[in-house]
Amino acid sequence: MESSSNQLNQVLEQGVRKLLARAVDARALKTDVLLPRITAAVEKYLLRDDPNTSPADISAFIEGIQADDLCLIIACERNDGGAWSDLVERFTPIVRSAARSATANEDAAEDLAQSIWAELYGLREGKDGQRSSKLAYYSGRGSLAGWLRAVVAQLAVDTYRKQSRFVQTEEDADLDRLARSMPLMSDPHASLLNPEQVIANRLAGSDMQDALNRAVKELDAEDRLLVKLYYFDGLRLREAGVVLGVHEATASRRLMRIHGDLKKRVRQILMEEFSWTESETERSFTEIGRHLDADLEALVTKEGVS
User: Fold this and answer.
1) What are the percentages of helix, strand and coil residues in the chain, rounded to 5?
2) Torsional sign, CA 212, 213, 215, 219
3) Whole-angstrom Cα Rg for the chain
4) How many CB atoms lie within 10 A of CB 37?
5) The pTM is what?
6) Per-residue pLDDT tens over the stretch 157-183
7) Per-domain boundaries in the chain
């Protein structure tokens, strides 16, 4: 038993050293500072369900942790002024964007965004009278941007519940249901997701759907018609080409161009208007994009293509 424990400690320490080595900015943190956080994450997400998790799986888990994001958060917890400045400067647009998505108006969004920074700074007192920061809950398993969006959404839900003496609007009810819903993404490890990550996945899907709505509306009528004929009416490209009065090869090239235009425009909207990072955008195209096909039919139909 002691030998097994020693082996685990060695795997954890080696994993943390590698994590610090691949961080672009490790914030001058040392192995002993990160080790408790990584150990807690491994125990929560791996060892709790399988005490015999292999060293290789533990190493792979640590390899997947966002090194720079975790170092930034731990530095903030250690009252590193430079880290706090970086956190606020980099993520204020993301927090505000998420707050606008989770509230009914700009004033409410601003209040929510300010409340988030209070939560992160640890300015609020808990039931025990002690001050604590939500930063302690960030494990590095997902991007910091996604985690912050989830924290915003969860705080919005909590706020609405505390205001239950008021009549709920439809938006409030939808958000409340959002907190109880299952993950949007088809993830074999969904049971390992914490509630905030579940909400982050939902918000990501919502942002992408909004961006797709915009992108499809910007297509010209003939492009929308081609999409509808091929994907939803079941016509072959040759048949769709006949309807449009073009050769099959022309229809094929046009469809490929439409794909490229939509993806480019959705990426642009997500990054410029929803403050997504490039890596988040690329990952979500793979994880979430496949769930949007059913909605595309409604969009092209809604725009008057029949």
Assistant:
1) 75, 0, 25
2) positive
3) 23
4) 19
5) 0.61
6) 777 666 644 444 444 344 344 334 433
7) 2-65, 78-180, 191-302
